[in-house]
User: Which sequence fits this backbone?
């Protein structure tokens, strides 16, 4: 029969032996401790382009919404005007409001074309085209000087002039 002191001594020596084995294994393994570094490196390497892609896609989608809204509202504002001159002014104001809603004040334009003269004749059609030049985010100037760093987004809307409106 073993005494309690012998059992405690054996347990301590067993623990000491296991600790020393672990130290030897760690020193001899060149891959030990590198998993966290690889994870961080690959995470950053994959996360940065993904973040840029999401930023770019969001900006292009906002431009698409803005161009669609500006074209539609410019056409509606034009066909509800009393005269052609007032219609052009109302179309520009409606498009400017739509562009500013999505922060596209620079590089945005709207054009209004009619299928005949005068524009606001009964059953006439008015085509409004909204165009936005979207600058890609985070592109340095020295790259933008040599490579296209913008995308053009356009939307066209055709509005009909009412047949029975008195002007």
Assistant:
């Amino acid at each position: 029969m073993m005494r309690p002191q012998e059992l405690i001594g054996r347990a301590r020596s067993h623990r000491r032996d296991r600790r020393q084995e672990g130290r030897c294994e760690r020193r001899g393994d060149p891959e030990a401790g590198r998993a966290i570094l690889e994870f961080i490196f690959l995470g950053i390497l994959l996360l940065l382009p993904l973040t840029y892609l999401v930023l770019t896609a969001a900006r292009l989608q906002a431009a698409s919404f803005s161009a669609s809204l500006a074209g539609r509202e410019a056409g509606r504002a034009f066909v509800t005007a009393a005269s052609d001159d007032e219609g052009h002014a109302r179309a520009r104001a409606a498009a400017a409001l739509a562009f500013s809603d999505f922060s596209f004040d620079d590089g945005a334009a709207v054009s209004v074309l009619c299928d005949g003269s005068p524009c606001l004749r009964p059953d006439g059609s008015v085509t409004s085209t909204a165009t936005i030049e979207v600058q890609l985010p985070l592109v340095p100037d020295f790259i933008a000087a040599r490579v296209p760093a913008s995308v053009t987004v356009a939307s066209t809307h055709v509005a009909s002039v009412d047949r029975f409106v008195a002007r």
Remarks:
- The chain has a mean pLDDT of 87.
